[in-house]
Amino acid sequence: METAALEEIAEVSIQANGDPDVPLVEAALGGDISAFQELVRRYDCKLLRIAQQMTHNLEDAEEAVQETFLKVYQKLNQFRGNSKFSTWLIRIVLNEALMKLRKRRFTELPLEYEDSDGNSLPLDLTDWSPNPEELCGRKELRKILRTALEALPQSLRIVFVLRDIEEMSIKETAEILSLHPTAVKARHFRARLQLRERLTKHFKVSAKLAANSTGR
Predict the structure, then answer these.
(1) Closest by alpha carbon to 174, among 166, 165, 184?
(2) Where is 161: in which H helix or E strand?
(3) Model pTM above 0.85
(4) For residues 73 and 77, what is the distance between their CA atoms, to the nearest angstrom?
(5) Are 79 and 86 in contact (CB under 8 A)?
(6) Assigned domain for 127 exists
(7) How far apart are CA 203 and CA 183, in angstroms?
(8) Do 99 and 145 belong to one domain?
(9) For residue 101, which of 141, 134, 63 has the smallest C-alpha distance?
């Protein structure tokens, strides 16, 4: 996904596309503040969840969502309706979250995946053993999963968050990220592949440590 694609906001009138949010958007454009507040209520939690999965920082995520709704309010008349209103919102919050990450890390990170040697991903996909739930509690497991997700390249993490956490379809994800569905499938596969590899390695080490501890 190119960052520029996230920043594009169309500038023509709203088209009818069966989007249930359009009546609220039109009412908000007419000066109905309560209509805009309803749009915020509908999507506040969803956008915060997405932003937090990208930044792994609640304060940054909250700021990204606040800035998203401020930008939406200021540019609501630029929403054309070619895509759903929710798609437009998610594009903006992803862009805001990525900007938070860049500020935090001082340098812009590449969005396209490439492994350290320029080679294809390794195919060591052995099953987890033992079961991770047997090695650590739920809190520890969430921490491990969060760390593994954070280590993914941003282009893969975004697709994984939208597909596996937000449970969006390939079509919806492709529309949000301005990608071809085939590219979404490829990135989703690579994201899952990398996550499984990282988690497999972690639990192998944990199992070995547990075995050594028991044998003492």
Answers:
(1) 184
(2) none
(3) no
(4) 9
(5) no
(6) no
(7) 30
(8) no
(9) 63
Long-range contacts of 180-185 (CB under 8 A, 24+ apart): 184/159
**Residue 14, domain CATH:** 1.10.1740.10
Which residues span the domain enclosing 38? 3-105
Burial of 61 (0-12, 13-18, 19+ CB in 10 A): buried
| Residue-wise pLDDT tens digits, 2-36 | 444 444 433 334 554 578 999 999 999 999 999 99
Show Cβ contacts of residue 168 under 8 Å, excluding neighbours closer than 6 positions: 162, 176
Q: Please list, in sequence order, all residues whose beta carbon lies within 8 angstroms of the beta carbon of residue 28, skipping any fewer than 6 positions away.
A: 35, 36, 39, 76
Length of the chain: 216
How far apart are alpha carbons 156 and 164 in whole angstroms? 12
Contacts of 8 (CB under 8 A, 6+ apart): 91, 178
Residue ranges with strand state E in 71-194: none
Q: Tell me if 116 is assigned to some domain.
A: no
**How far is residue 194 from each of residues 75, 131, 140, measured CA to CA in Å?**
38, 19, 20
Tens digits of per-residue pLDDT, 90-113?
999 999 999 988 887 643 434 443
The residues, ordered by sequence, that sit 6+ positions from 4 with a Cβ below 8 Å of its Cβ are: none
Looking at the structure, do residues 154 and 208 belong to the same domain, yes or no?
Answer: yes
